[in-house]
Amino acid sequence: MFSHAIKRASLIAAAAAMAVGLGATQASASPWTFTPQHPYYKGSDPRGNFTAQIKYDTGKFQMGWQLSAAVAAPATGLMNETADLTCNGRRVAHDSHPGVSPRYFLHMSAPLGSRWTSCNWDLKVHETFPIPRGTRTVDLDFPFIVTLV
Length: 149
What we know:
Layout: H1 4-23, E1 32-34, E2 40-45, E3 48-55, E4 60-67, H2 69-72, E5 79-87, E6 90-100, E7 106-111, E8 121-131, E9 134-146
Parallel strand pairs: 1-9
Antiparallel strand pairs: 2-3, 3-4, 4-7, 5-6, 5-8, 8-9
């Protein structure tokens, strides 16, 4: 049987490994390409579920993101969330929700404007909430481009 010290060390090591994985972003990933034939993206990983789409008839970007139950479970309080959509590094939309449940379904819609096919777009979501002995931070980075072909 494990001693309390060994159990505690194992839990701390597991939590540290999970925190490193949760803090990682996809900054080095290739951007997703939206086309009229493929205007939708859906993805999930251990952190949560993400969807995004381009509404070609209106020129809008729409997205949704929700943390997984496992990631949100240790929360001991409310979450603060911010989301920024940038075009070539310049912010064109911002969304913020302080004091929401860690299971909050973040959703956002933003017009892409007249330069929607000439931008290197990037959506960055930053979420923090208290957990026992600290704060959990979850970052999402979704680079994308929009084409008309």
